[in-house]
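User: Could you write out the 3D structure of this protein bound to copper (II) ion? I've included everything you need below.
Assistant: Certainly. Input first, then the structure.
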Amino acid sequence: MPPALRSSRTTLALTGALLLLLVAAPAAFGGIFTFDEQGSQNGKDISFLYNITLIIGLVIFLVVEGAIIYCLVKYRARRGGPDAEQIRGNTPLEIGWTVGAAVILVGLTVLTFLYLGDITDPPASSANGYQAAEGVQFATRDQPKPPGNGALEIDVNGQQYMWRFDYPGSLKGEAERLYSFYEMVVPTNTTVTLNITASDVIHSWWIPTLGGKADATPGYTNETWFKIEKPGIYKGQCAELCGENHADMLARVRAVPPDEFRAWAAKQGADIKAAQVGLGLQRLQGVGSE
Ligand SMILES: [Cu+2]
C-alpha cells in the first residue's frame, strides 16, 4: 500500500474513533462537571454544596490562570527591551490572599454545617406516603429516628456480588417476611432508612442520584436514608473494589406509588412463603424416600 494511502486510512480510523468516543461520552459522564439530577432531598443538598465549592474554585482558577497568562504575554522578554525589574515579595498582596482564602474556607464550613443536619437526619414521610407499622425499632447510632411513624426501614446487605434487601418488620401486614435481591422496591413520598452492612468483604452502597455513598462493612452498620418523590428507577453500583466480579455488582432502587408498593410487597411475600413451603415439602419427601 502506498504510504500516502496508508496515512489517510490511519487518519480516517482515528477520526472515526474520536467521533465514537464523543458519541459515547455523555452516557459515561452523566453530569460531566456537576451531579446528575438528584431524586432525594439529601442528594440535592449535597449537590448544592458541591456546586458552590465548584463555582468558587472555578472563579479562583480562572482569575489565577488568567493573571499568569496575561503577565507571561505582556511582560515577556523582548530583544533590546529593558531589564526585568527584580521584585521580592508584596506584603499587602500576600496578606490579602491569605485572609481571602481563610474567609472562603470559613464561609464554606459555615454553609456546610448549616446543611449537614438536613443531610444526615431523615425527615418525616409525607402524608401521601406509605404508612409503615408503628413502633418500628431503629438501630440508631448517629442517625436520629425520623419524626412520626411511617418511615420504612430496610436492611441492606452487600455480598460478593449482589445486594440483598430485607424489610424487617416495618410492613403493615403485607407480608410476614420480605426480602429481595438486586432491586430494592420502595414507596414514593416515604422516608426510607437504610441499615447498611456486608457479610463478606467491604462493599459500598451508592445510588448516585439518591445521596452520598455509604460503606458496607462486615460487623458494622452504616446508616443513611432517602425520600423519593418521583416514581422511577434509580441505578447504582457497588463503589468499593470487592473482588473480581465487582463490576457486576449492580443495584437499583425502583420507586413506585404506595399502593403499588403494597401490592408488590404482598406478592413478593407470598412468593417467598410459597417457596419456603415448597422447600419444606421437598425436604419431607426426601426424608420419606430415604
Ligand atoms: Cu461490592
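The pocket of copper (II) ion is lined by residues 158, 203, 238, 240, 242, 246, 249 (CB under 6 Å).
User: Perfect, thank you.
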